[in-house]
Design brief:
By secondary structure, this protein is an alpha/beta fold. It has three domains: 190 residues, D-Maltodextrin-Binding Protein, domain 2; 98 residues, Periplasmic binding protein-like II (D-Maltodextrin-Binding Protein, domain 2), CATH 3.40.190; 103 residues, no CATH class. The protein has 15 helices and 16 strands. The strands form four sheets. Strands 2-1-3-10-4-11 form a six-stranded mixed sheet, with helices on both faces. A five-stranded mixed sheet has the order 7-6-8-5-9, with helices on both faces. Strands 13-12-15 form a three-stranded antiparallel sheet, covered by helices on one side. Strand 1, helix 2 and strand 2 form a beta-alpha-beta unit. The longest helix is centred in the N-terminal third of the chain and has 23 residues. The radius of gyration is 24 Å and the shape is globular.
Length: 432
């Protein structure tokens, strides 16, 4: 009996820290990562949720914006943080249901590395254009795109995001040629849409609504099964004859795997209470967001269904993602059009992958390759050298920027560089 009593006492003592952690949690501010820039739809929903959870938890819930790779970088940071309940992330749908199929390498496994808390909000998306385009309906946009193949650029919140795949779906369903320009979140993409650097985009209703109401953008179609309450006059893609172009967006709340269950239950209770509050429902409703609180188990079932849906879409359109640290996107601005000429690796030798000479002189691509080759092995190639090469090719207002990763540019050649032959590029493009 003595041994049994000792075992019982040890088990009781071992349970005390876990119980105590749930009782005292949280004893300090909680960090909520929003994986997109401030001012975008995810940021808006995240801040409303943080306010509601703060009231429930009795501690500040502090927003940290960590943008990049269509929301993947922010989720990655949360997944690799300490599993103590003090770091959470408002995941986008793309970071858990699209990226696993569209990226060549994922920095986390949504099924193994994340503790699901609750789904947060569902939000419709709207296809809008800059008034520079002479179109007022989706049918007119399709007709214009067919008459001007490759001349319409559409911005997105990042490669592999729903905002990207919605555009790709439209390309496939309408049989049109649009040029994708990815950004590090919806906010910078919308800024360029307003400025005319890109002419089209599919984004969450909240981020475009004020610009549509002010007349700075034209809403052509809502990419949902139902019309958006805040845009009742805008038809759906189904109304326009493209029912498969459906891209409702949603956000969820997750943390790193391993959070103690009592703490996870406390977080879940706070989030669900906030999402069910009349104040948050009203705030979300003003921007067409529909709160969707759930249990972790319901979230798991919902995510599996979303993965099945978007995995099929990624395979159908043939989209293949890239390792996000390994590519740079070459953009050439000419007038109101931003042309995607091609991609270069950030680390590694110069290799043409996905090169698209969109209305760009073939000689310019070849001369740019010559300039890179002249910089030599192991030499960092910066903006001045690239701009000089492009100027020599008679192109103006050029910029080479990293796709989805960081603002600073450095292209490094680590093995003998070879001539980038324009003929090879065009050949490669024709046989893709």
């Amino acid at each position: 009996m003595n041994a049994l009593h000792r075992l019982f006492a040890l088990l009781l003592v071992a349970a005390i820290p876990v119980a105590a952690s749930a009782q005292v949690y949280p004893v300090k501010p909680v960090r909520l990562i929003v994986p997109f820039p401030a001012g975008g739809p995810a940021d808006i929903f995240g801040r409303f949720l943080a306010q509601g959870m703060s009231a429930q938890l009795g501690q500040p819930v502090v927003i940290e914006n960590v943008s990049g790779v269509g929301g993947v970088l922010g989720v990655e940071r949360a997944a690799k943080s300490a599993p103590d309940g003090y770091t959470l992330v408002l995941n986008s749908s793309s970071a858990v249901s699209i990226a696993p199929f569209s990226m060549a390498k994922m920095p986390y496994d949504p099924l193994k590395d994340l503790a699901l808390v609750t789904t947060v909000v569902r939000v419709p998306e709207v296809l809008a254009v800059n008034p520079v385009l002479p179109v007022n309906t989706l049918a007119e946009l399709v007709a214009y795109a067919r008459a001007n193949p490759g001349k319409i650029n559409f911005g997105s919140a990042g490669a592999g995001t729903i905002t990207h795949l919605a555009g790709e779906l439209l390309k496939v369903e309408a049989k049109i040629d649009l040029v994708h320009v990815p950004y590090k979140g919806a906010a910078p993409a919308v800024n360029d849409l307003l400025g005319g650097q890109v002419q089209m985009g599919v984004f969450d209703v909240p981020v475009l609504l004020p610009h549509i109401k002010s007349g700075k953008l034209k809403a052509l179609s809502v990419t949902s099964a139902r019309r958006a309450p805040s845009l009742p006059e805008v038809p759906t893609t189904g109304d326009a004859g493209y029912p498969k172009v459906n891209s409702d967006n949603w956000y969820g709340l997750v943390g790193p795997i391993g959070i103690p269950q009592p703490v996870l239950r406390r977080i879940h209770a706070a989030a669900v209470a906030a999402l069910n509050s009349a104040e948050l429902i009203e705030q979300y409703g003003k921007i067409s967001g529909v709160p969707m609180p759930s249990s972790p188990e319901e979230y798991a079932v919902f995510m599996a269904a979303e993965q099945a849906k978007w995995g099929a879409v990624v395979r159908a359109i043939g989209f293949k993602g890239v390792v996000h640290q390994q590519r740079a996107l070459l953009r050439i601005r000419r007038g109101n059009f931003l042309q995607q000429v091609g991609e270069l690796p950030v680390v590694g030798h110069v290799v043409q992958v996905g090169m698209r000479p969109v209305r760009a002189p073939e000689r310019a691509i070849a001369e740019l390759g010559d300039q890179l080759a002249r910089e030599g092995d192991g030499v960092g190639v910066g903006r001045p050298q690239l701009r000089a090469a492009l100027r020599a090719a008679h192109l103006h207002e050029e910029a080479l920027v990293l796709q989805e990763f960081e603002q600073r540019l450095e292209v490094r050649l680590v093995e003998p560089a070879r001539r980038v032959d324009a003929a090879h590029v065009v050949d490669h493009h024709r046989h893709r």
